Structures are given as structure tokens and as C-alpha cells.
Amino acid sequence: MKETDKSYGIKRIEMLFGLMFLLLFGSALQAQTISGKITDESTGEPLPFANVFISNTTFGSTTDIDGNFSITGQLPQNFELAASFMGYYTKFRNISLSGREQVTVYFQLTPKIGQLDEIQLKARRDKKWERNIKRFERVFLAVLDDPFLKQSKIVNPWVLDFEEGREGGMKYFAAVAQDPILIENQALGYNIEYHLQRFVETRRGFQYYGLVNFSELEVTEEVEEKRNATHYGSLRHFIQSLVHNKIDSLEYEIYQVKPDNLMRKRSNDFTEELNESIVKIHRDSLYICDFPNGLTAIVLPYKIEIHNKKQPWPNDYYENVYHSISWLEAPQQYFLVDKYGVLPDPGQLEMAGVMGRERMARFLPHDFEPTREVKDLMADFDSTLIQKTKWNSLREKPHISLNKSFYYPGEAIWFSGDMLYQNPIFADTLSKVLHVDLYDRNFQAIASEVFPIRNGKVSGVLVLPTDLKADNYVLRAYTNWMRNYESDGFTFVPIPVLGSQELGIAEVDKERFEIDEDIEVQVTSHFEKNLWNTKVKLEINILEPDQEIIGGSFNVSVLDADLNPSLGLQSDIEKSMDWLLDAEKSINYDEPKYPVQYGISLEGYFSHRRRQLVPVPITIVQGELEDYAIVNSDSSGYFYATGLVFQDSTEVSIAALNARRRSFGEIRLTSYQRPEIIQYYPRFSYQKVPIKNQEMEYAFNDFMSGKYFELEEVTVETIAPKSMAENNYGYGSPDRTVSSDFLESRPDLTLDRVVSMNMPGGSMGMYNWGLNAGEPLLMVDGARFFPSEEETVFAYLSTFVAAEVESIKIYTFSAGTFGLQGFAGAILVETKKGRRGIQEDQFFDASQFQKFKLRGFSSVPDFPVMNNYEGVLKQRSVIYWNPNMIWDKERISIPIEFEMSNQTKRILVKIEGISRDRDPIMKIIEIAVYTSN
């Protein structure tokens, strides 16, 4: 690289590398030997037939009867030497030969104590584990559309265990292995022994690494061809070409990716982006330094885009590019590679695109050398699966849990819902609206309601008409997004409606209600009868097997056992979770037809007598500025907005405004078209028996009258309240926070650049799956900024410098908290002076707007829980219902209290829910009413 035009940062790195060069010396070319001995750490006895191998290569050996080993060959200069033996923990040493012809290494292996054997491990595997191993293989072995996936398998999957949780507000999925993972790769002809050290996946990516031992299978001509093709399409080949200055312009083109210009919308046209968002560079533009110890440093101060013109690929990024594209970025602005083109520390380089698809099924030993050159590469994907792979992880499905199994005309169906996700990593970016319909045997809708989904949970109530005929009905629950997959994610629940003097009896396998042995549910009870009624105190205890409490949520229903002789007609949560094991599915269209709903949504068309074939900004205002957004129509005038949050109904004002804030054209809204009710009628299997002289209260209107207590109680704390700014103005934790240290280190940087530097790819990154999101919400010192054509959000941010600002909080995945205005994300800025330049009280002139009435979320009252009731309570089928019970470290015992009729002699306590690491819970406990009075 020329000495001119070098940044100060690059010069510092060069100085560092120069110092390293002086401290290192040359390596010999002759064969080298690693020898040593392996013994038991506790006894000192030798371990015969133990494995010793150089990680990520085919170099390896086994110990003799005395525990000795020897490995000879043209060995790497720097490597990890590992020793393993059945029943012992694997150990490794970092070895640097530095020109030495012989090195001696001793290992003392530690025995595993109390390790479960293979039979015990297999016995512990349940359906949840089956779901997790499937998810693990998608990340670890190969992506779903890679044809090598079908030719690779994990031989001993039972050694794996999994964990899910949240860290820093982000969900993660992690795996650990009790023993080495054994992989049989028929595609490339290797048996692989993988000693997993770390595996973690988040919504931003994944990372795994470990010690790897390769052994050869039979090498056929087909296997040899696949090995060669895999090598020439790999990251390793590109780095080798880069290091040895063999970049062929007919094979690779390299582009520098410029930071996103937030004032310019990026296109998918390659010719338009060239010299705008990407600039072509040559190998000489990169500083590459060889060290005598065999390592090479490549300075990479910016992100690069690599085009492999010999590898065909669909035009899924640029509409006019049909070869593979990859992106590389070095967080430390440089990375080191060995003579094989391999990174000793994989964390020094972040990959995306086609090179980011490389998994174990395409992993070659580092000492592999191709036998011949491959001129034309085959695309390493199965075209029949590529769309399925893209969309399968975004599938979702509601599980519906009812408060009881049988209903009466005029009664309310109280329900709770848990959203199931094929990939929980994307849960925060998927639907926030659940549609619920009730239909009859003639497939006619009886009722339709809409309920909000919050943190993957939903609760609701559906009131049956008083004149409803006693018959069998079906409740259908779905999200708008799942309509892209036909009825795959739809949930159908049988709803039998009985006559007023009837009971329903069904044969149910009671063993279903003990579906998770790891989590124990206990209920203690106390009954106290007074002159009129019976006071009940229950305590629900959730006991997890580990000392570290995971926590979770559940619903609880307390029923009169004599009025509910049968429960469980509907599917329990464990059966619903079988859907997670279904075959992968894709959407039924080239692109999604039905968008994700982040709240109450509206869509319509803008028209003008002077027909405009360009996008038009559409201003939408809820009420008197309770919510506000600007969305763009497409060239046909169609627009869509989502994120409104209100109950029952509200007035919305909509207009297209010109530069003088005058409206033009006409707005026409289209009504939401619910999916047709498919000819599906679940099987009902039950008998009816008459009630003997029974007077009970079940009608919703009667049920909701009288004195009762709401479920939630308010706890007064003595802790000093946080300020509005400290509490993020009630909007919850942000997805990303720009620290004061970052701001103080760059006092002259404008805030539009600060936001770009702190977001992946330099953009807001709100996942709205292809929708035109418009501009993000900006709040400065708690007051909203209202953008216009003259001053956009990022143009206004450019008027601030970092020195003026105390903190910046950015919401992307959780931006639905802000309603419609947060559809494109949200930015909260807290200045040091406060209240700079924004008027909090904005006057809304509605004279320029058309007005529309919108239906919102259905109201869900609290279930009427009777306490201290003065009078005689009638016997109730459902005595208590709470859809939102939580347990965690501070709350593993949950008390509930209520009053019920003295006529109730037995109660059923039905508990159903899910832990935070996706363990299902289902239990029904019968308790006899016993009082000392």
C-alpha cells in the first residue's frame, strides 16, 4: 500500500505490527514433531488410546499403552493441541512452534464425576428438547436451503442441552455439550468430533466455536469435486487470494461500503448504488502485513462488500446482480490469519451474505488443499428451499387456553393466549394484534373481536349472544401476518354450547395434565364458611428443579367441580407446541401480502384529479394528537399504517398536505377483510346430562353486576420515584443506548451521525418486513418533534452536536410501545439544558383533514372476583379466573383469595402456562371444600 492517504489509526496499527515483527523470528520448513504424554490428573496413571489432535486439521494421533503420543508433519506454526478421553474433560494448549523442530507437551485430564450415561441422557429428552435440537441444527450444521444439510447429521444429539433467556434486554438461545458432538458429513467425506466451547444465538446473529478433530471417510470422485468447489467458494479462499495478491478480477470484485446517508433512501439497483453507497476498491487499497511466525495481518478500517462473479446466486439483494455477495467487517479494524487463510480468532471478523452461510456441513480442515481448480462454481443452495428458509423462522401461532370447556347462551368465554414462534429471537418484531372469531356449523360468523398481544401474551373475553342456539361452535384465533401461510398458524378451538339445564361430560386422559415433570405445581387451600358464603384462600407454588428460578407466566381458573364434570376437551399447550416440530413452510406469495400488525391498522388509497404516479406523504392523526404519523403511499396511491392503540372506537383524521399545509386530493379507506372461514369443524366428543334442580349464575350481564374486586392490587413503595427521563417517559427499556462516554469523546459530532454510528449498518433497522415505515419518532426532552417536508427527523438531529446531549435511547424492536408514531422506530434524546427548540403543546388544525371512525381493540373487563359480599352468592360454574399470573425469583408462591357459594362442595384448580425458557405447564387439581365451621 502507498504511504500516502493513510489514516492515523492505520499508521498506529502499522507501528504495532512492526514492533511484533521485531519480536518474532522465522519458522523452519522441514517436518516437525509434537510428542508428549497423557495421564489421569487425580491418579497420575497413563491414559492409553486417548485422542490427541491439532484442532481444525486432520493431524492427530492416539496414545499408546503408556499414554505416549507423537504427531509429525508439516505442522502449522500456531495451533491448538487438544487431548480428549471418554469420561474426562477435554483440555487444550495453545502451541507456537516458532521454528522448533520438536515440542513436548504433557496433559493431565480431569475425570468427570457424576456424569449421566447415554441411556440416562436419552431418557431426559422431551418434546421441548426435540424443538431445540432442530433449531440448533439449523444454525450449527447448515442453513435450511443448503443441500449439504441432508447429507450431514449429528450422530449423538443426546449430548446437547439448551438454554433460553434474556441478557441486556435481548433474547438468546444457547447450547452446551456434555461430550464431543459427533458429526457424519457424507457430502465432504469426513467424520468430525466437535468439542463445543460456546454456542449462542440472538436476533443479531450467532457465534459458536470449539475444538475440531477431522477423520477421513471414503473419498469418491464426487466427494473430491464437492470439496474443491466448497473451498473455492469459501471465505478462506478469498483471504488466501487477498494475502497472496492473487485476486482475479474475473472472479472477485471488492467494494468499500460507505456509512448510510440517512438523508438518502437506498435502492436495490446496483448501478444506482455504485459510487453512492459502495465504491469499488482494489487489493492495493488494503494494508496487508506478513509476520515471520506465519501470521498475516489485514487492516480493514471499513466494511467491504465482496462479489464472487464465478458463483451464481439469485438477485435477492440487487435486482440486477446474479452472483453471490458477501460482507466482511472487522470490529477492531484489523484481523489476523494463518498460512491456511484461517483466523486464529474468528471473533475478529464479522461475516454476512453468502460467506455468512458457512456452517459445519461446509467446514473443511485447515490443512485441506484443493486437488484441482474449479472454473465454474455451483450455487450452494437448494432453489426449492430458499424461500422456505427465508420465511419459516417468521411463523407464529397462538395457543388459546379457556377458563372452562362448556358454555351456555349469554355466558362469556374468558381466554388467555400464548404466542408460539418458530424462532423466538424474532418474537419482538412479529404481530401485536390477535383476531378472534366465533363461527357455527354452517361456517357463519357469530362474533369477531380484536385483542392486543403484549410480550407474547394476550387475554380476552368473547360474550355469547343470549339467544344463541345450544350447539357446537368453533373459536378461530389468528394474526394477519399468518394469513401469508394460509391457515398454518390459525388456531381452532371447539366451543360446545349447552342448554341451560345441561352439563357436558367428555372422556379425557387425566395423565395429560401432568405434562412437565421438571416444574412442579402445588396448591394449598384454606376454607372458611360464614353465614352466607365460603371464603377461600389458595396458594399456588411453582417449584423449578434448579436453584436458579427461570420464572414464567400462567393462567388460573377455579371451577365448581360439580358443574364442570369434564375438562380438557380443548388442546393443552404441550399439544399446541407440537406445531413447532412441523415441517418448514414458506409464504404462499413472492412477497408478503398480509403485513405484520403492530396495533390497530388502517389502509386506503389517495387519489387526485391530476393523477400522480409518485409516492405521496399521508398525514394520520388520532383524536386530538393522541397519536400521529406520516406514511408514504406507493405510486398507485395505496398506503398502510399500523400501530394505533385504543379501545372500542376513535376518530382518525387523514390528509395529504402540500408544502403550505393545505390538503389536496381525496383519501378513501378500505375495510379490513377477514379471511374466509374454511370448511373446518373440529371433532366434538362428549355427552349431555341434565342438571338436577340447579340454580346457577352464568349470564355475562348478571355475572358483571354486584360488588367485586379487581384482580390487580396496588403496592405502595417507599423507594423514591424516578424522574420521567430516568424512567424513559414510561416507554420501557430501549434496544440501544448511546452512552455519555461515547458522546463526550465526540463532542462536535452531529446527532444524525451519532445515531448512524450506533446502529447496525448505520440505519434504524426497524423490522417491519418490507413495509414503507416512514420516519422514526423523535422525542427531545420528552416532547415530540413533528417532521415536515422542509425538516425531516434526521435533518433536525443534524442541528444538535454531541456536546449538548446527556443521553440518546433508540427503540427498534420494541418501538411498538409508541403506537403508530413508533412504527419506524423511536429516538429519545435528553439534552443537558432541556427543552431545546421544541414546543410540547402543538395545536392541531383538523379543518384540512378528512375524518374517519375506526374500531379499536375490544374491551376486556377484569373477571368479577367476589370478596366480602353481603348476601348469598349463587353457585357459579367459574368462580375465579386470572389470565396473567407471573412467577419469578421474588414470587414463587402466589396467593389468591375469593368468596364462593356455600353450595360448592368441590373445586377444580386449572393452571396452564409456559416458563420463560419455553417449558409448558398444565395441571388440574381437585380440592374438596372442608371447613371447621
From TrEMBL:
Q: Which top-level group of life is the source organism from?
A: Bacteria
The protein's UniProt keywords, in alphabetical order, are: Carboxypeptidase, Hydrolase, Protease
Signal peptide positions are none
Q: Name one GO molecular function term.
A: carboxypeptidase activity
* Pfam families, A to Z: CarbopepD_reg_2 (PF13715)
What is this protein's record name?
Carboxypeptidase-like protein
**Which organism is this entry from?**
Mongoliibacter ruber
Lineage of this protein's species? Bacteria, Pseudomonadati, Bacteroidota, Cytophagia, Cytophagales
